[in-house]
Each structure stands twice: as C-alpha cells, then as structure tokens.
Amino acid sequence: MESLWKLLYLLEPAPVTLSVTAVAVTFGSAFQALNYEKEMEQNRDLSEASITLDRSQALMIPEMSSCSLLLMFYLFSSVSQLLTAFTAIASVSSLFFCLSPHVAYLKSQFGLTDPYVSRCCSKLFTRIQALLLLACIGTVAAWLVSGHWILNNLLGISICIAFVSHVQLPNICAMLFIQLFVYDIFWVFF
C-alpha cells in the first residue's frame, strides 16, 4: 500500500498538464491530418497532399539534426538568427494552416460572404484569410519579442500538427523513431 503513495506525485498539476497536452496534441494532429487528406482527395489535389519520406531521407534526419546541433554549438551567434528566421516562417505558415479550417467554419456559421481579394501562390486569398495571416504574423512577432512560454508552446503545437498533416512515413516509422530516440539520448547525455 505504501508503494501506491509514491505514485501520488503523478496527480500534481504539472505531470497531469503535460500528459493531457501530449494526448490533445496527438489527437488534434491526427484529426487535422485526416481532415486535410479528405479535403485534398475531394479537390483531387493529391500532389500537394503530403510528402512521403523514403528510407534514405529518414536515415538523414538524425544525421542532419546532429550536424545542425554541432553548427549551432560552434557558430551559435551566426546560426541562431538564421534558425530563428526559419522557425518564425514555419510558425506563421503552420499556425495559419491550423487555424484556417476553424476560421472557415466560423465564417460559414455566421453566414459571412467574403469575395476573393487576390491570388497568392496560385491559391485564392480572401480578406478573412488576410486577417488571419496578419494575426499569425502578430502572434509570431509577439513570441519573437517576448519569448513567452505559452506562445512558444502554441507555435510548437502548430508545427507538430502541420508536420503530421503533411509528412507520411510509410513502413519506416519504427526505424525513424528508434533513430530519433537514440539521437535524443545521445545529445541529452553527451
């Protein structure tokens, strides 16, 4: 009976919040990926639906990540601005990707009609989408200025959801995840 009391720390707010967040991000990623795949099949736009990684590309992920960590260690001052710029661009696009279905749903619920404003990257772009893009840019700018952990987590979650929606890992998932596990252990304890 005493051994069960040792597990009581798992019911504290931090581990519970971490577990709930992990489950919610996994569920949200899977749900968004499924909806995105259905939408691409309906539009017959399968060329943009996903990126499929083969074995050689999966093997290169831990190696290139290790090289980037070494570069950041030795050339931190020059690489950090470049990495921050790439992260900001990826965060804006992934946050826009995650929020645009919700904005479209709200637009249909309120019966708003929004004429097309222009074409951007061969896609039709509306005023509501332009406002959403500005909100995403503002969110990323607030994160760049403040570095607040909530904004950091929000942008990280949106990047995870966009990655799961766009990248397919057929038949190499286990190999890739084992490599990433070894990579993580090596760089944490090295």
UniProtKB/TrEMBL annotation:
One record GO biological process: signal peptide processing
Pfam families associated with the record: Peptidase_A22B
InterPro entries found in the cross-reference section: Peptidase_A22B_SPP (IPR007369)
Statement: the UniProt record of this protein carries the keyword Protease: yes
Domain of life: Eukaryota
GO molecular-function terms, A-Z: aspartic endopeptidase activity, intramembrane cleaving
GO CC terms, sorted: cytoplasmic side of endoplasmic reticulum membrane; Golgi-associated vesicle membrane; lumenal side of endoplasmic reticulum membrane
Keywords, ordered alphabetically: Hydrolase, Protease
PANTHER family xref list: SIGNAL PEPTIDE PEPTIDASE, SIGNAL PEPTIDE PEPTIDASE-LIKE 3
Protein name (database record): Signal peptide peptidase-like 1
Organism listed in the record: Quercus suber
